[in-house]
Amino acid sequence: MNAQNNLPVIAIIGLGYVGLPLAVEFGKKYEVVGFDINRKRIDELAAGNDHTLEIVTDELKKVIRTEKETTGIYFTYDKSSLRSCNIFIVTVPTPVDRYNNPDLTPLINATETVAKALKPGAMVIYESTVYPGCTEDDCVPVLEKHSGLKFNIDFYCGYSPERINPGDKQRTLTNIKKVTSGSTFQAAQTINELYKSIIPAGTHLASSIKVAEAAKIIENAQRDINIAFVNELSKIFSLLDIDTSEVLEAASTKWNFLPFKPGLVGGHCIGVDPYYLAQKATSAGYYPEIILSGRRINDSMGAYVADTVVKLMLKKQINIWHAEVLIMGITFKENCPDVRNTKVVDIVKELQSYKANITVYDPWANCNEVRFEYEINCLDTLPQSKTYQAIIIAVGHHQFKGIDYRALLSEPGVLYDVKGILDPARIDGRL
Fold first, then answer.
1. How confident is the model over 385-427, as pLDDT tens digits?
2. Would you say 277 and 224 are in contact if contact means Cβ atoms under 8 Å apart?
3. Active site annotation includes 269
4. Which of 134, 157, 269, 336 is catalytic?
5. pTM of the model
């Protein structure tokens, strides 16, 4: 605790979609150090700008701490600034590698950084999505090794899974109930009260860190499996010449029907987290069939969309070889600039295998980031003097709803709506 005011000094490690909103809310009441290894990110935040668009400039500038203030955020990439903190909240990404194995490198590196700043009495809270047991089995030994302190004697841990939904301005950090946990009874109580102080929606104190970790991972695994089910239905109904959307609308009239829709499943949560649970299950001696089956179906949807569009083009006698194809959107979801693990890339790669000429347009994406991550060129403005043999609406950005697509299509041409944002009478196909 801060000796002068008996309040916590909180370090947020990682200032992305999860860490920044957390830092802002804590910064309204406490002294916060916002730490990230990305210097460019720190510079933009210190200037009051957030390229993720989660926090508006006016709100961010209000919580940037000045020298005279005892609350607010100090943004830094200097590790020595962490030494003044006694509560550390780790919010770094937990991706998978090219073989879909969990990659804990960012988490372990962040844990080492925290360990070197730990003092007796400190608490380390993890929000990054992990498999059950990761905090105590993988992170705690690193904390002990690099700090020289003993777990649950000199320092304590907790886990409070993030529930940030990028681009969602209704379900935000403060109005979503927060699951909390701690490594001892007293640590759990302290952590729970800390989060309660910034989240009006309240908290749910889990009985253990493992329970909290497991709760987070099944939230996204459940969604993944349900989406995989309707994706498989979409494939079946397409063969039977039945409109999937009409079937789902009819089925939704039953009170307990779950209204999931088919689509591409990417991003840093639903498209990744099930692999963490699957890996842990496998290491415990159980092969998770349903979880991995759902992943296989959802990972196949990009290629399925591309192949479906090619078939529609061939039916209209459009030569796919060097055909001009416009793909609307490259982010992993609508009205959000996040391109991590976007499955639109799979559509692009599959169409490129047919030697089609691909134009990607996305007003939300950072096209430099897209080129760096995926070696795909994209445009942030829509070309007006060109027509295309096929247009695929891959993301449901609000800007895409009022466009005259027929003016952009050659004759003949194919308009395919992955997201179902257009009138079915205007399109040639949809999931």
1. 899 999 999 999 999 998 999 899 999 999 999 999 999 988 9
2. no
3. yes
4. 269
5. 0.93
